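Help!! Second protein's tokens look totally different from the first
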Amino acid sequence: MDERKFYVVANWKGITGKENIKEICKMLSISALDDNTDVIVGCPFPYLQFVRQLLPERFNLAALNCYKECKGTYTTGEVSPVMLKDVGVSWVLLGHSDRRNVLNESDELVAEKAAYALSEGLSVIVCVGESYDDRSAGNTESTLANQLASLHKHIKDWQNVMLVYEPVWALGSGKSARPHNAQSVLGFIRKWLDNYVSKEMSQTVPLLYGGAVTSANCKPLALQPDVDGFLVGNNSTKHDLLQIINTNLNDDDKQSVDSGEYLSPYMDITDF
């Protein structure tokens, strides 16, 4: 972790109301935040330009999706990376479990969109993760390997890529995966990057954890060697976000992740 930056990505999915957005942006703008944490705010298309005008430049802006082409057939209703850059967006979130599992986006489509966004100058945040059925069948690594292989097929330069591990089996539970679960999978991803991309990229591509991240469970997760930050969903529009951004400010908190204090915010596949 010492060699890599720490990131917090706020996924403002479903946010509505400009007044609400103003209050959240004000909270972020006037709060004391860890200078060593890069904060990326992701919000729905209609509010992107509005949010860019409200937030200081230290906050990067992300769209929550984009398409694999700029114009032409099949682009009606889609938003391209060129459009996003035009309104001040520098990142795009792709492959979120909502889009893979509800809207049936394939590994191939996610990879194509990521590669095109990179070619147009955006940085990409790509989510990968396994379902309950995958994990219970022992297919976690093979599932992630397939998702990563699709990315590798289309992405030639990984310098502006960030990967997020989303344990789909834990989403909606209100509890995060246990720290050792998150570390095990992120460690696998880093080893995969080492084997199939390059040793340099395995050490520089940020690996984030996403899934019910809160102020109560973020510290033990952040202590894991391969956790470079968080994708925050439901708590990204709450005061909790400030504490998550400041996760690393209190370095005196080295309590074991297996202590009783930290068990309740987490779940394992055995908890089902």
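Here's the second one for comparison:
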Amino acid sequence: MDTLISILVLLSGLPFQAHCIRLTVSPSKLLNGLTEKLEVNCTFLAGSDLSLSSLTSLSIRRWTNSTSLREAATVSSFNGVTLSDSVTAVGTIDNSGMSFLNVIWSYPNLTNLGEYECLADGLDTTDHPLSRSSNYNVTGLSPESELLVEEILKLQQTIHHLNTDFLSLKEEVSIFMSTLTHRVNASHRTMFETSAAFNGSQYSLYSIDTVVDIVQAQATCEIYGGNLVEVNNENEFHFLKTFIEDVSDAALVLIGGNQIHDVGNWVYPQSNASIKYFRWAKDYPLFTMGANCLVLWGSFEWNMTNVNCLNSFLMRYICENVL
């Protein structure tokens, strides 16, 4: 079972000559199996130790037990960086500046416990071999948090599975929406004649005369992303008149205006705006009970009439989609 461990960076009573070597460990704490990397860095500045006139190599090693050392990586002036452990390492020897060796363990575990050592090998002022070293002690916390680590790992696995499922579902939804859009567009082309754009809107005229009421017509318009048309001015009226005449022989075309909730107050339900523009046919509007819905009448000359919303008429309806 994985165990919660902590990297405690402790400079272990180094003698004076080791102070020229800087050894750092990051992060200062890690969770076994959860921390992404453990980074150990060793540096030596030329001239910081007058006894060591020429540096030949830097090595990072760790004690696997009280008597055995395992080398992780070495950088030398002859061979560059060489690896002896499953690590990533970079480094260089520079006798006129800063020499360094950087070693990284990915997802460190219990084997990373122990004492770490940075060893600097070189020559003294008389060209005799000379070594300097610096050590850090890596210790672990007590294992009372084993269950916590286990639960965190389980949560990570669950999150990974959820992310995978989400991406799969997202792809399925994307395919479904693409297919649905294609089918809706194909259905729309079959059922409607569509106009060119006019003042930021596009109009769709139902292609055949049918018995329809305002609720059915509005619901169908909404399926295709629009609403029963709102005629707001003379220019729009003439555009609709020309469009209807060009694509059909319609005589009655239902539009969105009505006075269902307040007789005498004609409104467009979608925008809830009072109708300002009317082009009433002769003898209209009617003031009979229930004549609450508004249509365009083209039998003689295109104008507006009001009809009983509950009566059945063979007519068409026209939707408006804001672009």
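Reply: Different proteins will give different token patterns, so don't panic. Residues 146-191 form the longest helix (46 residues).
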